[in-house]
Write a structure and sequence with these properties.
The longest helix is centred in the C-terminal third of the chain and has 17 residues, at about 320-340. This protein is of the alpha/beta class. It contains ten helices and 17 strands. It folds into two domains: about 5-70, Alpha-Beta Plaits (2-Layer Sandwich); about 85-344, TIM Barrel, CATH 3.20.20.70.
């Protein structure tokens, strides 16, 4: 009988293999340990599930270092990478030591060429570099505007070239995720798609930043686990976006979970954005919520604006008109400075 000794595991583990370990050996270790194998720089990394409690000693000499975790928060954990991941978004740096807070705005939906050109002209005119607008809309009712689809993505591509902007737009489900990835600079995974593993796995293979919104019924752990699906696919450029959760309150659309944001900043190494528009659901409260978000020192804001909100085909009640947005935008610089941040 052959006896094996083991390198003991405590819960989940990330294992960095030595630079000398080749792909074949790394993949053999991954199979034996039921791990995901990633290439990070010049080294292979194994991400281990909590089903496996030990690694056979034959592999012990291949291990450079390892990290133990009590939950499935692994690649996103500050126990693994203590600083916020730094990434380039629209030629601006967020995360890391940048202290930048990025502002993104635009309408809920692309509605027409005239409407989106008006938005692009406004956004570029005040110095914002990223325009948001939805093309595939995950509406609650099947009888409401569902978005312009691929035609809308093509319009966004046109205004990007004309106005020198970067584009963020949402993937509703896996049926069109490839088209969204093809046309946009930042892929938004919406609250209703947070659990769609087809979308998450495609985003894990994309070489673009992914903005992942928290589902309104998701716990923080579930939110982070959705991010892990993308991270373990090889894409490290993941942004978490808090946009409000469903509580007992009925006077606002959702409840913006700033306590949850504090938790994410403390325990998770990914940049954090906030969306006060979807949380509040009504334009009158968006400015105050935004200022509270800035005071938390977050990495970015997603705010809806529209040339004529009352005529908007989706989420009309929460979108700011251009004058309202400009007044808000002008007010947040001093708050950002007070907490050591820069508005970009």
């Amino acid at each position: 009988m052959i006896r094996h000794t083991y390198l003991s595991l405590a819960g989940n583990m990330i294992i960095h293999l030595k630079e000398s370990i080749n792909q074949k050996t790394a993949e053999e270790m991954a199979v034996k340990t039921d791990s995901i194998c990633l290439k990070k720089g010049s080294k292979f990394v194994l991400i281990n599930s909590n089903k496996i409690k030990a690694i056979e000693s034959e592999f012990e000499s291949a291990v450079e270092e390892s990290f133990n975790f009590e939950s499935d928060t692994q690649l996103a954990s500050r126990l693994y990478h203590s600083n916020t991941i730094q990434m380039e978004v629209a030629e601006k740096t967020i995360g890391g030591i940048s202290q930048n807070t990025m502002v993104i705005t635009g309408p809920c939906s692309v509605e027409s060429r005239k409407q989106i050109e008006s938005c692009a002209d406004f956004v570029s005119g005040i110095g914002i570099s990223v325009l948001r607008a939805g093309c595939f809309k995950p509406r609650t009712s099947p009888y409401t505007f569902q978005g312009m689809g691929l035609e809308g993505l093509k319009l966004l591509s046109e205004v990007r070239e004309k106005y020198g902007l970067k584009i963020i737009s949402e993937a509703r489900d896996a049926s069109h995720i490839d088209k969204v990835i093809e046309h946009v600079d930042i892929v938004q995974v919406g609250a209703k798609a947070m659990y769609d593993q087809g979308v998450l796995r495609k985003c894990g293979k994309a070489e673009k930043p992914i903005l992942l919104k928290r589902s309104f019924g998701a716990s923080l752990q579930e939110f982070i686990q959705a991010a892990e699906f993308i991270l373990c696919g090889g894409n490290e450029n993941v942004i978490l976006c808090e946009r409000g959760i469903r509580t007992f309150e009925t006077k606002t659309r959702f409840t913006l979970d700033l306590c949850g944001v504090a938790y994410l900043k403390e325990h998770v190494n990914l940049p954090v954005f906030l969306d006060p528009s979807h949380a509040m659901g009504y334009a009158y409260g968006v400015a105050d919520l935004t200022r509270a978000c800035v005071a938390m020192g977050v990495d970015g804001l997603l705010i809806e604006s529209h040339p004529y909100p009352k005529t908007a085909l989706s989420d009309a009640s929460q979108q700011l008109n251009f004058k309202e947005f400009k007044t808000l935008y002008d007010s947040i610089g001093a708050i950002a400075t007070a907490v050591g941040r820069n508005i970009v």
